[in-house]
């Protein structure tokens, strides 16, 4: 632990007090406002089907839906790939098991990638729309525009991506911060995101030992085209987290990096994981040169660490 830089920012004189401050300033969520819905993604997904959706709009309020759908698919087969999206399914090829109430328990395969179809294949698609409730949606739910309807579906489907956004939130939050450091220092730093260490050899001719060459780093900072600094960033909610194993893994990571002449900074947070784990945090601070939480980064400690490395 390089205690001097912590003393400078935290106005604390010993490691015990620094560990206490680290724990006391942990956050219990890494959700920002952009966590909930990726509106740009939703807009893009809806725009992709804008023409097809406008064609399908003609079915809203249809008095003879099955016949009208049959005719529409016959004339405009390009609407076929949009059908699964109307029930929140992105797959274009899948199988469906027949209803248990039907004596025939066969499995039916659908392929919505295929556009040109014969009469029986179109009837099969119409039957799919009846059995899945798409017909009911057109007759009873959709009133004005399928674009609005699909926008709502996309919001719901986007919730499945929240887990990834949550896992990447710390990295995403740090990117603009590092980009500013890179910009302010006019060529002193080069920031690499989610690269394997062997990329340094391929791109910059920097020798990398076999023990780390295939490891992927959250961030690799190349300083003055010579020094290599690895920053690893994570947030632990506590669910499934094993603090001892986590700390030991990052102690090992620093050791492996040092053998290669590289530097290491670990940024971690999450009240659910680290609160009550003082001994593990203490161990981490003892063995790892620089451990920061979100609050420490915001104070400017990371900027100073990079300057002195």
Tell me what the structure shows.
- The protein is α/β, with parallel strands linked by helices and 309 residues long.
- It has 2 domains: 3-33 and 162-308, Trna Endonuclease, Chain: A, domain 1 (3-Layer(aba) Sandwich), CATH 3.40.1350; 39-160, no CATH class.
- The protein is 50% helix and 14% strand.
- The chain contains 15 helices and 7 strands.
- The chain has helices spanning 3-10, 15-24, 39-48, 50-56, 65-75, 119-131, 134-141, 146-158, 162-184, 198-204, 243-259, 271-274, 278-287, 294-299, 301-308, and strands spanning 93-97, 107-111, 189-196, 216-223, 227-235, 263-269, 291-292.
- Strands 3-4-5-6-7 form a 5-stranded mixed sheet, sandwiched between helices. It has a two-stranded antiparallel sheet with strand order 1-2.
- A hairpin with a 3-residue loop joins strand 4 (216-223) and strand 5 (227-235).
- Helix 2 crosses helix 13.
- The two termini are 13 Å apart.
- The mean pLDDT is 88.
Keywords:
2 domains; alpha/beta; 7 strands; 309 residues; 15 helices
Secondary-structure map:
Blueprint: H1 3-10, H2 15-24, H3 39-48, H4 50-56, H5 65-75, E1 93-97, E2 107-111, H6 119-131, H7 134-141, H8 146-158, H9 162-184, E3 189-196, H10 198-204, E4 216-223, E5 227-235, H11 243-259, E6 263-269, H12 271-274, H13 278-287, E7 291-292, H14 294-299, H15 301-308
Parallel strand pairs: 5-6, 6-7
Antiparallel strand pairs: 1-2, 3-4, 4-5
